[in-house]
């Protein structure tokens, strides 16, 4: 759906349905790819596959890694890790890191009937040690204020990065709002690569507010709750 909006094209990773031939094509092009369940799932079932050369592939799921020899054995192994739903292939994004741990951004956007989308809060989700997913519960990670995370990270932060994040979030809200007229709240997950470019990872239609309660400053949480009334 979002791929039909030209404004969002540059922020959406190349995505195809999983099949072995597509996996090899993408590994040849990108060297590392992410396999993820279609429709999201809070970080569950996400697998990273990296080509090591000489028909050897490293498979990273959860906080465990395994090197598999041969294409047939690799496909068999990754399929054994799949959840019971279709899988997608995307290039592995070189997300910003803090002390070697990847992080992404949760942006809360909201609207009232007949009004435009508004960014009511954002924060950073830092993956737990050894994990590739930033889901806090799944990776035992933590929440940080966005400005703190960016300052501590290896991201090349431009002066207008926060405005670009807001722009991407609002454009995403407009796109989704056309398809779902009664939609009032979206928790948008954005990745920021090391060059400072935002990437759309996932849109959550029933986002939990508990992440914002973990911040030391609760103003964003209170703003989100007030907007929801």
Q: What is the fold's blueprint, element by element?
A:
Elements: E1 16-17, H1 20-30, E2 32-37, E3 47-53, E4 56-61, E5 64-69, H2 71-81, E6 87-91, E7 97-98, E8 101-110, E9 118-126, H3 136-139, E10 142-144, H4 146-152, H5 161-179, E11 185-192, E12 198-204, H6 210-213, H7 219-228
Antiparallel strand pairs: 1-6, 2-3, 2-6, 3-4, 4-5, 7-8, 8-9, 8-11, 9-10, 11-12
Pfam families: ATPgrasp_YheCD
GO molecular function, one term: metal ion binding
Domain ATP-grasp: 1-229
Describe the protein in words:
With 229 residues, this protein is of the alpha+beta class. It folds into 2 domains: 10-91, 2-Layer Sandwich (Dna Ligase, domain 1), CATH 3.30.1490; 97-228, ATP-grasp fold, B domain (D-amino Acid Aminotransferase, Chain A, domain 1), CATH 3.30.470. Helix content is 29%, strand content 31%. The chain contains 7 helices and 12 strands. The chain has helices at 20-30, 71-81, 136-139, 146-152, 161-179, 210-213, 219-228, and strands at residues 16-17, 32-37, 47-53, 56-61, 64-69, 87-91, 97-98, 101-110, 118-126, 142-144, 185-192, 198-204. The strands form 2 sheets. It has a 6-stranded antiparallel sheet, covered by helices on one side. Strands 7, 8, 9, 10, 11 and 12 form a 6-stranded antiparallel sheet that branches. A hairpin with a 2-residue loop joins β4 and β5 (64-69). The radius of gyration is 18 Å and the shape is globular. The relative contact order is 0.16. The mean pLDDT is 93.
């Amino acid at each position: 759906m979002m791929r039909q909006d030209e404004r969002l094209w540059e922020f959406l990773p190349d995505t195809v349905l999983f099949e072995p031939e597509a996996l090899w094509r993408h590994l040849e092009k990108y060297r590392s790819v992410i396999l993820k369940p279609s429709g999201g799932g809070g970080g569950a079932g996400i697998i990273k596959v990296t080509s090591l050369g000489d028909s050897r592939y490293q498979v990273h799921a959860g906080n465990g890694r395994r090197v598999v020899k041969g294409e047939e054995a690799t496909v068999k192994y990754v399929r054994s890790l799949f959840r019971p739903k279709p899988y997608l292939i995307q290039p592995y994004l070189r997300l910003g890191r803090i002390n070697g741990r990847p992080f992404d951004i949760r942006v809360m956007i909201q609207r009232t009937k007949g009004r435009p989308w508004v960014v009511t809060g954002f924060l950073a989700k830092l993956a737990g040690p050894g994990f590739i997913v930033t889901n806090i519960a799944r990776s035992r990670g933590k929440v940080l204020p966005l400005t703190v995370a960016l300052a501590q990270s290896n991201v090349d932060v431009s002066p207008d990065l926060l405005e670009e994040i807001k722009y991407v979030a609002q454009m995403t809200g407009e796109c989704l709002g056309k398809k779902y007229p009664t939609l009032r709240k979206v928790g948008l997950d954005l990745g920021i690569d090391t060059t400072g470019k935002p990437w759309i990872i996932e849109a959550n239609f029933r986002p939990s507010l508990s992440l914002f309660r973990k911040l030391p400053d609760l103003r964003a949480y209170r703003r989100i709750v007030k907007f929801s009334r």
